[in-house]
Design a protein that fits this description.
By secondary structure, this protein is mainly α.
Length: 250
């Protein structure tokens, strides 16, 4: 389920609960909203509010960690691409086709991530380093230095391939649906209590509308940040663009 859909569901639940609380207020007997009853409701909602704040903090921390890990993966992979190109350059002119293939792979990764259509393709195909690894295995080193450079190139290309599959597995995951459902339920109960205790005037309705919209947008942004390669908030492709400028140099 996309973050926007989850945000819309959260908004409908939260703001609908606030309106339902206002409607229920006018139908309850007066003693149900006496001072003692209001105090009990406030104490109960304070506990739910604390739990919601803690859960939201955990979501933010998890999303920030995923985003930072994705940024580190991109910078590390870009550095390994440049390193692989330099190792191939030192091996000799016979690696020129592999260097060209490496450059085309980087260009493909950058181009495939530009539009919405390319997001799933980027995960499915990613950085196709396996073909380059096959080319490395077919090399026939003539000297000890070439043996060492070939082994180093295979190691670096293996690290790049590993990062690619780790990236793909990261995008498969996400926040557990039951956790999000419980969090939305807590926010729904909170706003229901707000509507129950607040007078039903235009100012209160607009305030609750703005707050419900803010909570929903916050959920959308947090969930979107947890998918740093697919969402609106993506990690920068600047490391690979910088690496692309350095590839192919003698």
């Amino acid at each position: 389920m996309s973050p926007i859909v989850i945000g819309c569901i959260a908004f409908l639940c939260v703001f609908g609960a606030a309106l339902a609380g206002m409607a229920l207020r006018s139908r309850l007997p007066d003693h149900h909203l006496a001072a003692e009853s209001r105090d009990a409701i406030k104490l109960a909602t304070a506990i739910i509010g604390t739990l919601s704040a803690l859960a939201l903090g955990l979501l933010i921390a998890s999303a920030k960690r995923s985003f930072d890990d994705a940024g580190m993966e991109r910078r590390t992979s870009a550095a390994r691409v440049v390193l692989l190109d330099r190792v191939l350059a030192r091996y000799g002119p016979e690696t020129q086709p592999l260097r060209e293939a490496l450059r085309k792979a980087v260009e493909a990764r950058l181009s495939v991530e530009q539009g919405d259509e390319g997001r799933n393709v980027a995960l499915a195909e990613g950085f196709d380093v396996e073909a380059i690894q096959e080319g490395l295995r077919t090399l026939a080193p003539q000297t000890d230095a070439q043996h060492l450079l070939r082994a180093r190139a295979i190691q670096v290309s293996g690290d790049i391939a590993e990062a690619r599959w780790l990236r793909t597995e990261t995008e498969v995951g996400g926040f557990p649906a039951p956790f999000l459902a419980v969090l939305i339920l807590w926010f729904t109960l909170l706003f229901a209590s707000f509507g129950l205790l607040a007078p039903g005037n235009g100012t209160v309705v607009l305030t609750l509308l703005a707050c419900a919209l803010s909570v929903s947008v916050a959920l959308v942004l947090i969930i979107d940040m947890d998918h740093p390669y697919l969402g609106f908030i993506r990690v920068s492709d600047a490391p690979f663009r910088t690496a692309l400028e350095r590839l192919g140099r003698p």
